[in-house]
Write a structure and sequence with these properties.
Layout: H1 10-24, E1 29-32, H2 47-75, E2 79-84, H3 97-117, E3 122-129, H4 144-151, H5 162-173, E4 184-187, H6 191-195
Parallel strand pairs: 1-2, 2-3, 3-4
Helix pairs in contact: 1-2, 2-3
Length: 196
């Protein structure tokens, strides 16, 4: 099922939740996967850009997670909430102060949610991708020289794929991960090792 929604709009978020519940009857898993960022120097960043970044990357995660958590509690069967964060939520990146702040907020929201929801049977974790081939911010990496320099950031020597991220999400959604709570798992080819 596909529902078109603008996650900056609360009404659309509620419509997305209601449509999903009406179609499937119950909700056992939520993956908060909306996001995106544009490079803007801090001194040029507008309030509108700041607000939009936080609406998509943090506010929507809060609203949807709260709606779904209430539903999971009502169902009485527990569930999983997996937030898609970013390595930018763990380190500062030039030109992405608004994105880093939003994703950093989402990382701490994940941990706070986990502490409150785990006793209720709802396990909350985060997957924090680094540079992924399918990302919207990679046009510069089409240049072989830029790509060669960028790859020096990765001990593994390659950029990630959407499958690299999806495999971790699938693991966190499974019973095999039942003792992992409030974690932020980097899927970044080791990039954070060198940035910390």
């Amino acid at each position: 099922m596909v529902v078109q929604a603008d996650l900056c709009n609360s009404c659309d978020i509620h419509k997305l939740f209601s449509s999903s519940l009406q179609t499937f009857g119950e909700i056992h898993l939520l993956v908060n996967n909306a996001g995106g960022g544009i490079i803007v120097p801090f001194l040029e960043l507008t309030e509108e850009q700041w607000d939009r970044m936080h609406s998509v990357n943090l506010r929507a995660t809060f609203i949807l997670s709260q709606l779904v958590a209430h539903q999971m509690i009502k169902q009485g069967k527990g569930g999983r909430i997996i937030n898609i964060g970013s390595t930018a939520g763990h380190v500062a990146i030039k030109g992405l102060s608004h994105y880093c702040a939003a994703k950093g907020g989402a990382t701490l929201l994940t941990r706070a949610m986990a502490t409150e929801l785990a006793p209720l049977g709802i396990i909350v974790n985060e997957v924090a991708p680094g540079t992924i081939e399918a990302g919207a911010s990679l046009p510069d990496l089409q240049d072989p020289d830029v790509l060669r320099e960028h790859l020096k950031l990765f001990p593994i020597g390659r950029i990630g794929t959407s499958d690299d991220v999806a495999n971790v999400v699938a693991f966190l959604a499974s019973e095999q991960s039942s003792f992992i709570v409030g974690a932020s798992i980097p899927v970044d080819g080791g990039c954070l090792i060198w940035r910390h």
